[in-house]
């Protein structure tokens, strides 16, 4: 065979082989469920389990979070570390390529929390198994251990409008008797589920916590990138209260030097009163390592006068100094009494806490 003819045959064979070749093996890539124009991607994640036990998290309640990541993008959010951990695990398992890994971390390691939201699409199957575990562990001599939804990411973040996972969870819990359920959210979308919340409340103990750090619209945009405005959150609170749902306000975190002054807090208590809240709880900022990466640059840019104070107060710890915590608790207690709300120190009174949860343990 002439040399030229052999070359043509060999080129053809290698082209055929290229066409037949399969891409490098990847166990199961993470399917993209939806994408927004601004670049947010919603990624399917198959959970083995969704209900975190107190033993897993170090707190006295069970917790459940249908999403990992949150488009609201609060600068003080402590759940960013868990997103990072999920991304690292997916990369280690070969479900994200090296390039995707970089994309799922973001330039500073925290942006992707707001732009790559993991959706626990198949959580209802996992919940069924977990409920069996939950009921097996129950002590008939004691009231049911609380189940709190939204301890790490917002269960009514924008993704919920499409995926309706939180609603599915509530529908399932509404078929149980004698539970003790708490929900924490910043989103008015919760009012969509008033019907199922009412059903749940008929057979279980339910408390809804609408989270709001300030009624100051300009200020809220400094610290929460895309959260719903105060007025719409308060309207949702009122809608739930009017429908008979036990709902209150959670003011967390209170930001030292930014939202802890009396006029700020009074405005929140007043708004809660007018909206029909049954309680108001509050707690100070915890500056976990993963929060510092995002929060401190914001502070330097927008509140430069406070940087030195924060560095001093949070040096070597995540919590505020004891005297600040006591002063804030006393201020909140006085306001609770003045505005006619039950007086206590916060959510821990209801749900209890054996120990401060470690960063990695905050139960996603
Ligand atoms: S709404 Fe909650 S979960 Fe979402 S970013 Fe803000 S603090 Fe984090």
Tell me the number of structural domains.
1
CATH class: Alpha Beta
SSE topology string: HEEEHEEHHHEHEHHEHEHHEHEHHHH
Under CATH, the topology can be stated as TIM Barrel
Give me the number of helical elements: 16
Mean pLDDT across the residues is 88
Distance between the termini: 67 Å
Q: If classified by CATH, what would the architecture be?
A: Alpha-Beta Barrel
Q: Could you give me the name of the CATH homologous superfamily? A: Aldolase class I
Explain this structure.
The chain is α/β, with parallel strands linked by helices and 364 residues long. The chain has a single domain (32-339), classed as Aldolase class I (TIM Barrel, Alpha-Beta Barrel), CATH 3.20.20. Helix content is 45%, strand content 13%. The protein has 16 helices and eleven strands. The chain has helices at 3-20, 54-57, 80-92, 98-105, 112-115, 123-137, 159-163, 165-173, 194-203, 217-223, 230-242, 262-275, 289-302, 307-313, 322-338, 347-351, and strands at 32-35, 41-44, 51-52, 62-64, 67-68, 116-119, 147-149, 180-185, 205-211, 247-254, 280-284. A seven-stranded mixed sheet has the order 3-4-7-8-9-10-11. It has a four-stranded mixed sheet with strand order 1-2-6-5. The chain is globular. Residues 16-23 and 353-364 have low confidence and may be disordered. The structure holds iron/sulfur cluster (SF4). Iron/sulfur cluster binds at residues 70, 72-74, 77, 79, 153-154, 157, 186, 227.
């Amino acid at each position: 065979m002439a040399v030229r003819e052999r070359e043509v045959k060999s080129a053809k064979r290698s082209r055929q082989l290229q066409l037949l070749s399969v891409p490098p093996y990847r166990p199961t890539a993470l399917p993209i469920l939806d994408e927004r124009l601004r670049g947010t991607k919603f990624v399917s994640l198959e959970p083995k389990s969704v209900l975190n036990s107190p033993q897993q998290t170090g707190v006295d309640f069970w917790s459940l979070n249908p999403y990992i990541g949150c488009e609201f993008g609060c600068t003080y959010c402590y759940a960013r570390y868990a997103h990072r951990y999920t991304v690292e695990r997916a990369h280690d398992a070969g479900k994200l390529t090296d390039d995707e890994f970089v994309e799922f971390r973001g330039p500073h390691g925290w942006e992707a929390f707001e732009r790559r939201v993991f959706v626990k699409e198949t959580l209802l199957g996992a919940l069924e198994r977990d409920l069996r575990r939950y009921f097996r562990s129950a002590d008939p001599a004691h009231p049911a251990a609380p189940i709190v939804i939204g301890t790490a990411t917002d269960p009514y973040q924008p993704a919920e409008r499409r995926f309706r996972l939180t609603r599915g969870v509530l529908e399932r819990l509404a078929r149980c008797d004698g539970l003790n359920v708490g929900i924490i959210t910043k989103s008015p979308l919760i009012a969509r589920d008033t019907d199922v919340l009412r059903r749940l409340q008929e057979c279980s103990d339910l408390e809804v916590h609408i989270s709001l750090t300030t009624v100051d619209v300009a200020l809220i945009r400094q610290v929460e990138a895309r959260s719903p405005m105060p007025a719409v959150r308060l309207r949702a609170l009122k809608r739930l209260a009017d429908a008979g749902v036990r709902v209150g306000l959670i003011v967390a975190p209170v930001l030292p030097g930014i939202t802890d002054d009396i006029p700020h807090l009074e405005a929140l208590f007043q708004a809660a009163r007018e909206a029909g809240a049954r309680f108001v709880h509050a707690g100070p900022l915890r500056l976990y390592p993963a929060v510092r990466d995002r929060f401190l640059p914001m502070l330097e840019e927008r509140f430069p006068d406070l940087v030195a104070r924060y560095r001093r107060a949070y040096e070597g710890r995540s919590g505020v100094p004891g005297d600040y915590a006591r002063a804030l608790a006393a201020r909140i207690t006085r306001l609770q009494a003045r505005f006619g709300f039950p007086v206590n120190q916060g959510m821990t009174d209801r749900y209890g806490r054996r120990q401060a949860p470690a960063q990695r343990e905050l139960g996603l």
